[in-house]
TrEMBL record:
It comes from Dasysiphonia japonica. Pfam families: Rv2949c-like. The gene is ycf21. Keywords: Plastid. This is Chorismate lyase.
C-alpha cells in the first residue's frame, strides 16, 4: 500500500530532491545540500538518539495532534509531534501515519509517549528505513516555533518491518541543529 502524507500546512518548497537522485550524484555534481545537512538528512539511524548525543540533553516528545481514521478496513493513526529538550528548545517537527493493519503483526508495541526511534531501539526491533525525498523551504509557522527565521530542511521516509510498510514519517528540522557541528 502506498501512502502519501501532505506536508505541513503552509510549507513552501524551494527544492524537492527524490532520494534516488541524491544517492546517484556525488557532492561535486550536486552541491545544493551542505555536507553537515547531508549527514542529518541521509542518516538512517534514530534522529532522536543522534540529537540527544549531540546536545547532551534528554529529548522529550510533545504530541500536538493525534487523529484516528479508518478507510477500507485499514486503521490509521496520524500523529504530529515536536522533539524538544528539557529546556523546551525545539529540534524537529514530525508528522507520522501509522498503519495498524500491519502493526498488529509486529512483535512489539511502539510507546506513544516515546519518539518512534527510541521505541524501536528499546525493543531491539530490526527495521528498514526508506527515504523518499529531501526538501528545503520555509514555513512561517515552523520558523516561529523554531525561533529562527530562515529556510528549513526536511525529509520523508517509510519504516518497514518484515517487508511491510507500517509508518511513514515527515520531518522538518530546526536550522539551529547545524550548530552542533561547529
Amino acid at each position: 500500500m502506498k501512502i502519501h502524507i501532505h506536508t505541513f500546512d503552509l510549507f513552501h518548497y524551494l527544492l524537492i530532491i527524490p532520494y534516488k537522485k541524491i544517492q546517484k550524484l556525488n557532492k561535486q555534481c550536486y552541491p545544493k545540500i551542505p555536507n553537515k545537512w547531508q549527514l542529518i538528512l541521509t542518516n538512517e539511524g534514530s534522529f532522536t538518539q543522534i540529537i540527544k548525543n549531540l546536545s547532551g540533553y534528554k529529548i522529550n516528545i510533545k504530541v500536538v495532534e493525534k487523529k484516528n481514521q479508518t478507510f477500507n478496513n485499514i486503521h490509521k493513526n496520524i500523529r504530529c509531534v515536536w522533539l524538544e529538550n528539557c529546556i523546551y528548545t525545539k529540534y524537529l517537527f514530525a508528522r507520522s501515519i501509522w498503519l495498524f493493519k500491519y502493526l498488529e503483526k509486529i512483535d512489539y508495541k511502539i510507546q506513544n509517549n516515546l519518539p518512534i526511534g527510541n521505541s524501536l531501539i528499546n525493543s531491539q526491533t530490526d527495521i528498514y528505513k526508506h527515504i523518499h525525498e529531501i526538501y528545503y523551504g520555509y514555513s512561517n509557522n515552523l520558523e516561529k516555533k523554531f525561533k529562527i527565521y530562515q529556510p528549513i530542511w526536511g525529509r520523508k521516509y517509510t519504516l518497514y518491518y518484515k517487508n511491510k510498510s507500517f509508518i511513514t514519517i515527515q520531518e522538518f528540522f530546526s536550522p539551529s541543529i547545524i550548530n552542533f557541528f561547529s
